């Protein structure tokens, strides 16, 4: 089974943000030239994540970040000495990878769905690893 891999470099600019990377993943899937298969998106970091959700209304991403702040507030009785426990918790809730189907050479996403890199401990330089398998 041929596999195609790529590492993306994404620079975040805020402490917490959601960056739409749909176009980058879509371009890579097209470049891979595989008609039917899967595309796996993974971040090798413990304080960011990958999320699929609505990318039409920016209020959705703001609401998601607000809700995550409630679940993992900036100040609490955290033990982790680096001071970024909320980022680790948010990353654990969101997850570090997503697998998408490829059909007819295209990513299978719903009309309003987009793929987001979720930064919880920025600004930073982040890697996103992509793999397409057919």
Please explain how this structure is put together.
With 134 residues, the protein is of the alpha+beta class. The protein has one domain (3-133): YjbQ-like (Jelly Rolls), CATH 2.60.120. Helix content is 26%, strand content 38%. It is built from 3 helices and 8 strands, in the order ββαββααββββ. The strands form 2 sheets. Strands 1-8-3-5-6 form a 5-stranded antiparallel sheet, with helices on one face.
What is the fold named in CATH at topology level? Jelly Rolls
Alpha-beta content class: alpha+beta
Cα end-to-end separation:
7 Å
In CATH, the homologous superfamily goes by the name YjbQ-like
Helix content: 25-40%
Say how many strands there are.
8
List keywords for this structure.
134 residues, alpha+beta, five-stranded antiparallel β-sheet, three-stranded antiparallel β-sheet, Jelly Rolls, 26% helix
Concise account of the structure shown:
With 134 residues, the chain is an alpha+beta fold.
How are the secondary structure elements laid out?
Elements: E1 3-11, E2 17-20, H1 22-32, E3 37-42, E4 48-54, H2 58-71, H3 85-94, E5 97-103, E6 106-107, E7 113-119, E8 125-133
Antiparallel strand pairs: 1-8, 2-7, 3-5, 3-8, 4-7, 5-6
